[in-house]
Write a structure and sequence with these properties.
Blueprint: H1 3-23, H2 32-49, E1 71-73, E2 83-84, H3 87-102, E3 111-117, E4 120-127, E5 130-136, E6 142-144, H4 147-150, E7 166-173, H5 176-185, H6 193-201, H7 206-211, E8 215-224, H8 232-241, E9 251-253, H9 256-269, E10 277-284, H10 287-293, E11 303-307, E12 311-324, E13 329-341, E14 344-350, H11 354-359, E15 367-372, E16 379-383, E17 407-409, E18 412-414, H12 422-433, H13 445-455, H14 468-472, H15 479-492, E19 494-496, H16 497-503, H17 511-521, H18 524-529, H19 532-535, H20 543-554, H21 556-567, E20 571-573, E21 588-590, H22 600-609, E22 613-615
């Protein structure tokens, strides 16, 4: 028995080596039959010994379905990417990057160019050379734990030569050839390759993930001990050397014009690829310069994404339906004859409002031209020709959600029934619970629908009165799920002021603006008492946003929503209390590197609460 784990180790190494050569490098080392025989020998050995090594290829078959995804905290934050959509805007980014770099080094910059892959970002952790964790990007600080699903992706190595701690970032995707093949074999075809990949990776049953035949490319290392590379090209080579699949395309140059020409060439050839891309990523290659430049609140200063030109096509406008959002605004949705955009079948297109329909002189049955700019749903830009009239699009007079008479304000139609219009109520509750707002885990839009329909939950404060007994009567709820939601609700009572301001849904107020308001006024009482002139004293706030805030706090209905939340025990923290008398008051603090007990976002929040200005 003692020698079996050793021979098992040899078998696992041999199978992983040959699988990597086959799936990553398209270089089969042994015939398929020989591989199958080795695999069967390993599987038999595992059954006999009860031992299965953590990187055994038998783990790729997919385990038992999960009950739910758990959250996984990333070691290092996964950042979003700033975007530009024209060569002029790219030139301005070059100007900023080079001006900042001149303060750090007198060496000329070199830029690396890669495809911007259109899949689902994944973050893998290796310890001791073995894959131990895998998660989706999520909010950049934490994502859904998908280790069992990732293990089924055959070109992802389960073990690697590097033995230190490492987090590596990549893009899980479905190749277009696989997408087309699957759509020929299933009853309900996938809408596009990206959604198919995301649905496969985020499926609770790993066997479904396996059957979808996903692939991956890797392009960045977020955390590593003692890196042996100093630039992007060296990093990509290190990634390849450890058996990870890497996009074959990579271009480096110190010339802006060469980079721009390479982007043009890349855009012209993207339809020849077997995977979807929606742009190019430009990075400063020198890692020491990157470290010195750091990050803004959202993006790295040393990289930018260039979005490709939009795609256009003609089709037929078949019908128009209307959707109701959390503010009561009715938005038209166009249904068109199916048209293909680079492997994506489009059946719907957006329209902005009733005025947009009139301005574009749209009617049913006419030919229209639509534009897609890497969105799942493109936009109708106008009619193709003036000749045909078609059927009239009817202007709604009642809300499709509740039947109340609609009102027209400017170019938009609104449902005024804020208390009893189901789509409005559900959307407001889902927004309140969302990740950037109160971050109530387990309270999705679908859950909000259930709570509204079964428990008559109509405003956020009522969430805090839900009992365990009520939840256990709902479909799909058992002890653990009910307890998890109640715990998440209880934990959300203690919240930051900026999260609270964003959560209550003030028109025109995003999370960044909410943070500026919180930092400026400090307390909810001061925000509520502020005049429009006081509000316009904040840099980001103009007269429109100031009026939105002022109106919101003086509307009896929305003011009542806030009062009810306070009575329910929700306590927005004083944004200035922690700063009184502290050494950080008025100081700027830069967060870099990896912190042992805090995420970067948590550290920045603590800095702000202590009166400092946090940056990365």
């Amino acid at each position: 028995m003692n020698d079996k784990p050793l021979s098992m180790r040899d078998l696992v190494d041999r199978l992983n080596e040959t699988a990597r050569a086959y799936y990553v490098f398209d270089d089969p080392l042994i015939p398929d039959k020989a591989w199958d025989e080795l695999y069967d020998t390993l599987a038999q050995m595992e059954r006999e010994t009860g031992v299965r090594l953590p990187d055994s290829p038998t783990r790729r078959v997919g385990g038992e379905p999960l009950n739910a995804f758990r959250q996984h905290q990333h070691i290092a934050r996964l950042w979003s990417m700033d975007k530009v959509q024209s060569e002029e805007a790219l030139g301005k980014w070059f100007d900023r990057a080079e001006a900042s770099a001149r303060k750090i080094t007198d060496q000329p910059l070199t830029f690396g160019l890669e495809h911007k892959l259109d899949g689902l970002t994944i973050n893998l952790t290796y310890r001791g050379g073995v894959l131990t964790d895998a998660a989706t990007r999520g909010n950049g600080e934490a994502g859904e734990y998908v280790l069992e699903q990732v293990r089924t992706i055959r070109d992802i190595p389960l073990s690697i030569p590097y033995k230190g701690l490492m987090e590596i970032h990549g893009e899980a995707m479905m190749r277009l050839s696989v997408f087309r093949h699957l759509n020929r074999t299933i009853d309900e075809p996938f809408k596009n390759a990206r959604n198919a990949a995301a649905g496969a990776l985020r499926n609770l049953n790993p066997q479904v993930t396996r059957d979808r035949r996903l692939s991956a490319f890797f392009y960045d290392i977020g955390t590593i001990e003692n890196p042996a590379y100093t630039n992007q090209g060296g990093m990509l080579q290190f990634i390849r050397d450890n058996g990870f699949p890497v996009d074959p395309y990579y271009f480096e140059s110190g010339s802006r014009e060469e980079v721009k020409q390479a982007i043009r060439d890349m855009e012209g050839s993207r339809h020849n690829l077997d995977y979807m891309t929606d742009g190019a990523v430009i990075k400063i290659t020198d890692l020491s310069v990157r470290a010195a430049l750091g990050f803004t609140d959202k993006f790295p200063r040393w990289a930018v994404a260039f979005k490709f030109e939009v795609e256009e096509a003609t089709t037929t406008l078949e019908s128009v339906t209307w959707e109701v959002g959390r503010t009561g605004k009715l938005t038209p949705l166009a249904h068109v004859y199916p048209v293909d955009f680079s492997g994506v079948t489009v059946k719907r297109a957006t329209l902005n409002n009733w005025e947009d329909i009139n301005r574009k002189r749209l009617s049913l049955g006419i030919s229209v031209w639509i534009r897609r700019s890497n969105d799942v749903i493109p936009e109708i830009m106008g009619r193709v020709e003036d000749g045909s009239e078609g059927g009239a699009i009817k202007k709604p007079t009642v809300c499709p959600g509740c039947g109340d008479d609609v009102v027209e304000i400017g170019a938009h139609l609104f449902c005024p029934n804020r208390l009893n219009c189901r789509p409005q109520v559900v959307a407001r509750i889902a927004h309140f619970a969302s990740r950037d707002a109160m971050d109530i885990a387990g309270l999705s839009e679908k859950t909000a629908e259930t709570l509204h329909d079964r428990l008559n939950i109509r405003e956020p404060a009522e969430l805090y009165g839900i009992t365990r007994e009520q939840l256990l009567l709902l479909p799909g709820y058992k002890d653990k799920k009910a307890d998890n939601l109640l715990d998440a609700l209880a934990g959300s009572r203690d919240c930051s002021l900026d999260a609270f301001l964003f959560a209550v849904g003030i028109p025109n107020i995003g999370r960044v603006t909410a943070r500026s308001i919180a930092e400026h006024f400090g307390t909810l009482d001061k925000v509520r008492a502020a005049s429009t002139q006081d509000l316009q004293g904040i840099d980001e706030i103009g007269d429109v946003v100031a009026q939105s805030l002022w109106d919101f706090f003086r509307d009896p209905l929305t003011a009542g929503v806030i009062d009810h939340l306070l009575k329910a025990g929700v306590v927005p923290r004083d944004a200035t209390a922690a700063a009184q008398g502290t050494a950080l008051a008025g100081r700027s603090v830069v967060v870099t590197g990896t912190l042992p007990t805090l995420s970067r976002q948590q550290a920045e929040q603590l800095i702000r609460e202590a009166g400092g200005n946090a940056s990365s």
